[in-house]
Design brief:
CATH superfamily of one domain: Immunoglobulins
Strand order of the largest sheet: 3-2-5-6
CATH class of one domain: Mainly Beta
Shape: globular
CATH architecture of one domain: Sandwich
Number of strands: 7
Number of helices: 1
Oligomer: single chain
Helix content: under 10%
Structural class: mainly beta
CATH topology of one domain: Immunoglobulin-like
Distance between the termini: 67 Å
Order of helices and strands: HEEEEEEE
Radius of gyration: 17 Å
């Protein structure tokens, strides 16, 4: 079999993309918010995920660095913050219900 080009193992191509951020989105009473959208933005690139039925999310293949976090769901106020991601981790974000 002939191989053309410079083939490298997958891990060698993406050594910088090894971190993940996961956790849970809850309301004020601690109940998971199904379908909440979690966005981690860095250098003009958005990485996002929708929470599952229990409010859990996991975003993989992240580079270390500073991120802007935006979390939102219908009927809730938008949560925004910043974080410095150096290690993979679990996070809990609590969303407040919108005033009627």
């Amino acid at each position: 079999m002939q191989v053309y080009g410079d083939l490298k193992p997958y891990a060698a191509l993406d050594n910088s993309l090894r971190l993940s951020a996961g956790g849970r989105i809850t309301d004020e009473s601690g109940i998971g918010v199904s379908g909440a959208r979690v966005v981690l933005a860095r250098d003009g690139k958005n990485n996002y995920m929708y929470a599952d039925s229990g409010g859990r999310f996991l975003i993989r293949r992240l580079e270390a660095g500073d991120y802007k976090i935006t979390v939102g769901a219908e009927g809730f106020e938008i949560f925004e913050s910043t974080m410095n991601l150096r290690n993979s981790g679990d996070y809990t974000f609590t969303l407040l219900r919108q005033a009627i």
